[in-house]
User: Which sequence fits this backbone?
């Protein structure tokens, strides 16, 4: 089969013919229908500092956001028939550590990541644990199914267990309107936010933010986002801030636009330590800063399924580009250009 | 001034001329713009068993759902200027009991109710504690302001502190589509419910339920509502049931249509003890039954303000009738007919 | 091996020699060290109405509260070595239903119960799913390990996810001081309750209640328990009531001794529908009634392990009797006498 | 009366004779029985950078932790009789801002602090709002009543609304064992923590930490506290960390000793921005960082009352010194020495 592979611990990747992998115990082989590109995949391609430190396995097929058809099962697989259309949870949990046993597998102590620690989805076929296959229910568009994983990140950040219940009738700010931020805007709107505010320096993405339902979109390169949010909230600040940028300065600003007693969910990954004004922005305000990673397994997927299948959220505008896998270089170029939302790669012949 | 008074502990009421009351310490005099009729007011008018047992004060001006203009203040009132347009919280809390001191004034141990324990709002003027005045913010229609109190009941039941966070992307059933149930349907829709289901035997109200956003409206006089909800939810039951009917049989049915782990909020007041199948419908399902009364002071009012001012909910269709106070008999007749939603009385001259 | 079997759908049970069972895929064979008797086991022995309706499988080895040594594994078992000392979770979850997938396996839609739907633990060996084996950590007395399952019921009822956080510095009432109620008293004490009150008509159990740390023990056959709790709480009622009796009248009383805004967890199983005064005891008080069954898998087990291993709770006084399996009739007689706490059966030779 | 006053915006303070203040509307005059010294008071005395920036009112009587007898009431005071023994909440809330109206007065948008923005308690008499007077219930030692305010800080940090329910059967680390940290250790112990670990460089305070119930006390000047906590928790980290030091390095360490999914409450005030490793210590672990200030009004006081009156916590060992107000210089010297816990000043004649 064709697979996009890192063959060396260095920038670049190659499209190669490799054997179709075999599912082991508890695993299934999935024929990939579509696999979308994550910012992480770009880091892996370009072999940045993070990738060099994190990737321990080369050669490696990368890519982890996918939907496809179960083609075959390994031993020890029950309740998942070939032919089923599934999306993949990419956090591969051990199932037996303390965290897994207490219902929080997504922060498993022995966590492995699909397409980072195992061969991934930029290929005609991928092997995933059966436990990681989410059966895509009726009503979800097949392309939307390819982005359920990053969409789930946004669901978890906006209405996850810890933060749930504070969105209804509240103003919600999303800092950073890349694809997950764009999803978050629409999810906050669907979950009953009174107003949804996006902050994003990239004009292309600001336009998408409006299409995804933002009431107000702030360009932090021209306007002070803290002042703009305080003005929009009559000085109170926003009860909910969802941080998707990973930019240290934006994170600091996020704390400053947060209302007293507010909740800030942190998902974007900064490059290094982030200095925070804990006194005035966290302690005296009794702010809550919540780390967010992955998706609650599988409460978040149930919510994701419902939001997409019911039509409460339409991810259509965010999926801006589609390429056959062979044209992966163009796809990554588009991603790098900043003039894109989600980009999906299709490994099949003529499946676009 | 003109006031609708109970003059005897017996059915009936009289429209009388009485002196304008004087606000005492901590109280304000409000010029009533509109006062809507609650089911409780009908009980008081008809002097049913509940009213006979509960009302300890005759003569009494009744009516408690109101909005109006602050006309004058008694001593010890700060931060509330004459001329301010306010709605009234009707739970008059003592402020010093254990419950009040721990932030739950709406279930004060010494609770008094406006229009039940004190003279109420079916009059040109009413005196309320300044602490019970909610300053109606911009964007709320004056008639909608008159129904903020019962609307707040519905807000508290659907997205109150205890239940909040389970509505988003969930199916929500509202049992009983009187005015508060109708509000609840729209609030659940605005708060991100995936589907909203109403149960109501009265055809007029079923039509209103559809106008307020119900996806499905079940007539329990012709269809088994438990079977209908289970069918609509593929056998899982609904994660959230909001009980507004106070009908013992409907409450029992509510528990049977509740999903495992579901939450049922109880607001409707039954006539007597209600037999419940605790084993199968509560314990084995780990259901949560939450008593709901009044409104969280004043978190619920903040949410109410936002939902109404932002346009997330339009209560217009529920306000079906408007009468001058002099025509109170017609107003109560309309209420009794079952062919009405909220009915507002206007005591002023020419203010309709 | 020797096994205590129901051979007919009728009262009684026989101690028979049967083949040692073989673990299937995902299952382990456990050599039973001790198995304690649950009230349910007495119902099964006596074949009461509930048993006749619920047990679909005869012959059946019953018994479900156990600890023992993993003897052998079936295929598809990982991470559980022979020789490991384990206790058994008795809720056998399917793992793939909506409830399981959203982290609430203990209320699985396809739930089966060990010793009820499968052969149980009153035998030298028992087969359980590997997923149901809790590895008993250091510091837990082997006899205490046999009662971790019912102890876990009490943990879940007192400090489970829904109720957690309201016990510290609060008065806690436990209604019904059978073994699970006795555990609950000690758990509430360990979890920071300011006062712990037990209600129990049986004198033997009232004495045990005092030994388990109750500050006050009320005999409802001589004193009005509602009046007694209200007096002890200066009229406020108790913020937390844990219902372990399953007695309809006691459940009703439980609601009446509950403080405004209080939480009542229901675990005891009543015989039929229970009439509740929802108006005054639930709605106007904003009480929360929480159904409780089984144990959160496996958060509750983690807490159970800690409470027992740390010495925060000593279950010693509750384990009043120990018998070899051959003397099961005496054991059940002791249970029936009401002069016992937990009774453990030991199937092994000379292991007592 | 005698009062310890800042007379100039500079280091130092003077004991002066000043008129007894008069309570205004809604205020009471309290005859101070004892007033304990807070670290803040030392900053005010020494006029450090924070004090110079924060204190806008000189001359000023400082001191804010107090208990005493209501001597007289101003107008508009109800439900508080002269002769009542009270402790003082020091957060003076406006009562009408958005935060106050939604039940979070302790983070009022117009917050003023007793002894900082108003004349305080290092005097024979102090005026406080009647709403800020907590009637000290039976069973609280009068000296303990003087420290209810800082004790309440610790209660709020350990078992406040946001964090409640995660302490039972969990390991709790308290970073910084000054008086509030020492209280926190004992509160965590009383609230059902399985183990309580203190971190403190000062030997005198480490000894006190042991007396207050710490199972393990770590000296960060000789041992790596992160390694020590990880070792004590078998590598999992602690589910709850309570930060009382305000030391930037210790805050960073706190995040590193926190378990996956753990909760860290921040109360200690750092000198400047604190760099945090958000990726590995917050986001990937899904840690929750909670700002903590003041006390929930008055839920925390209710808990404080119960913990002290029931004997669950004995603050005796923490109150290490008592001085008459005239000897304030000695008192501050003791505080500066680091060889003290709480130091109480007594303004009365012969009341020690």
Assistant:
């Amino acid at each position: 089969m064709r697979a996009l592979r890192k063959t060396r611990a260095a920038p670049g990747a190659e499209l190669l013919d490799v054997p179709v992998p075999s599912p082991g115990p508890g695993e299934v082989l999935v024929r990939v229908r579509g696999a979308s590109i994550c910012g992480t995949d770009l880091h892996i391609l370009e072999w940045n500092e993070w990738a060099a430190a994190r990737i321990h396995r080369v050669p490696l097929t990368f890519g982890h956001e996918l939907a496809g058809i179960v083609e075959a099962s390994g031993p020890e697989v029950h309740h998942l028939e070939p032919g089923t259309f599934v999306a993949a949870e990419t956090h591969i949990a051990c199932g037996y550590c303390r965290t897994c046993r207490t219902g929080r597998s997504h922060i498993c102590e022995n966590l492995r990541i699909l397409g980072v620690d195992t061969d991934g989805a930029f290929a005609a076929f991928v092997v995933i644990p059966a436990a990681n296959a989410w059966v895509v229910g009726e009503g979800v568009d097949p392309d939307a199914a390819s982005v359920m994983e990053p969409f789930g990140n946004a669901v978890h950040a906006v209405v996850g267990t810890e933060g749930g219940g504070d969105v209804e009738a509240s103003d919600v700010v999303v800092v950073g309107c890349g694809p997950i931020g764009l999803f978050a805007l629409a999810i906050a709107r669907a979950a009953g936010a009174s107003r949804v505010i996006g902050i994003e320096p990239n004009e292309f993405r600001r336009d998408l933010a409006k299409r995804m339902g933002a009431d107000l979109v702030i360009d932090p390169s021209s306007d002070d986002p803290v002042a703009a949010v305080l003005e929009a909230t009559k000085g109170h600040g926003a009860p909910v801030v969802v941080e998707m940028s990973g930019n240290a300065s934006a994170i600091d600003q996020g704390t400053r636009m947060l209302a007293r007693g507010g909740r800030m969910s942190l998902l974007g990954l900064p490059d290094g330590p982030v200095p925070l004004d804990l006194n005035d922005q966290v302690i005296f305000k009794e702010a809550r800063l919540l780390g967010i990673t992955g998706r609650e397994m599988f409460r978040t997927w149930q919510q994701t399924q419902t939001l997409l299948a019911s039509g409460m959220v339409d991810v259509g505008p965010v999926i801006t580009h589609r390429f056959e896998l062979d044209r992966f270089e163009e796809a990554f170029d588009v991603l790098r250009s900043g003039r894109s939302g989600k980009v999906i790669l299709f490994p099949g012949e003529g499946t676009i």
The radius of gyration of chain B is 20 Å. The mean pLDDT of chain B is 96. Chain B touches chain A through 20 residues (CB under 8 Å).
